[in-house]
Amino acid sequence: MHFHDKPNTYVTNIEVKVSDLQRSLTYYQDIIGFKVLQQEANRATLTADGKTALLTIVQLETIEQKTSSTSGLYHFALLLPTRRDLANIITHFRQSGVYFGASDHDVSEALYLRDPDENGIEIYVDRPESDWTWRSDQVHMVTEPLNIPSILAEADGQWHGLPANTVMGHIHLSVSSLVAAETFYTKGLGFDIVTRYGEQALFISTGRYHHHIGLNTWYSEGAPKLGENQIGLKSYTLRLDNEEQANTLKANLRQIGAPVTDIDGGFQTEDPAGNVILLKF
Q1: I need a labelling partner for 276 at 20 to 30 A (CA). Which of 123, 173, 186, 190 fits?
Q2: How far apart are CA 8 and CA 82, in angstroms?
Q3: Where would I find the VOC domain in this sequence (predicted)?
């Protein structure tokens, strides 16, 4: 999983707002297989290996209902180490009566589901990068039916929660303008475009990964940003390589008019769709 290590810029932790912390904790532990790393009255940090934060859930005191589509989280994606791990979690989902969608993206095999607050989740495994097809600087990705029997043939029945070396593989965001998002993420944050889906979706990465971030306007073209008291994405964290990179990115962001605020261990910014990003070493 060298795509999720320095010097690449990659997603480490997702922070989502939920309506009922205990209900979400039960779901994320019993169904998804997280362990609790830290818990407070209205928030909990979840982990796969017992030390690395992957997901933070925050209970809102006041909940404002959405009256229309907004920008924000499309899904966050947990990357499992092996195909056998994917087989075992499919078996677990079936035994638990959990509905899930499934797709073959050529570069990866993926499951899709939603938490009790309808926050989108992907759980996937990558195919070997030697099997990915690149045409110049564009990686070939598709959405085809997943061959679940082929995956299940590798199951060994050993599901004990998320494997310790599960990582946050990527985040997929709903944005209000793909043009504005492209400028922000490429010119501001230095990501490379690796796939375009017409004028409605864009996939970007560092280090020639198939994508660390997905961006789309499928349900959010021109939509307002998510409200502070609405369920959904609160923030997500990107891992920086070093201070020199941080200073370069801050200068680039300021040049395109994006906000920059220093925080412990790095800085904070916000994309044009209102998604809050923490950039840390």
Answers
A1: 123
A2: 21
A3: 10-126, 167-281
> Using an 8 Å Cβ cutoff, are 32 and 121 in contact?
yes
pLDDT single digits (tens) 214-223 = 999 999 999 9
CA atoms within 13 A on the CB side of 57: 26
Q: Which of 170, 184, 28, 166 is nearest to 86 (CA)?
A: 166
| pTM for the structure as a whole | 0.97
pLDDT digits (tens, 9 = 90+) for 95-118: 999 999 999 999 999 999 999 999
Q: Are 261 and 278 in contact (CB under 8 A)?
A: no
Give the per-residue pLDDT at 68.
86
Burial class (CB in 10 A: 0-12, 13-18, 19+), 244: exposed
Q: Closest Cα partner for 117 from 52, 27, 180, 195?
A: 27
pLDDT single digits (tens) 50-78: 999 999 999 999 999 988 899 999 999 99
Task: Round to whole Å and give the CA distance between 202 and 175.
Answer: 11
**Structural tokens at position 212:** 């660390």
Could you tell me the domains of the chain? Answer: 2-280 (3.10.180.10)
Sign of CA dihedral 242, 247, 249, 250: positive
Three-state SS annotation for 98-135: CCCEEEECCCEEEEEEECCCCCEEEEEEECCHHHCCEE
Q: How many residues does the chain have?
A: 281
Q: In this structure, are residues 231 and 18 in contact, taking their beta carbons and an 8 Å threshold?
A: yes
Buried b / exposed e across 144-178, counting CB within 10 Å, b at 16+?
eebebeebeeebeeebeebbeebbbbbbbbbbbbb
Question: What's the maximum distance between 2 C-alpha atoms anywhere in the chain?
Answer: 53
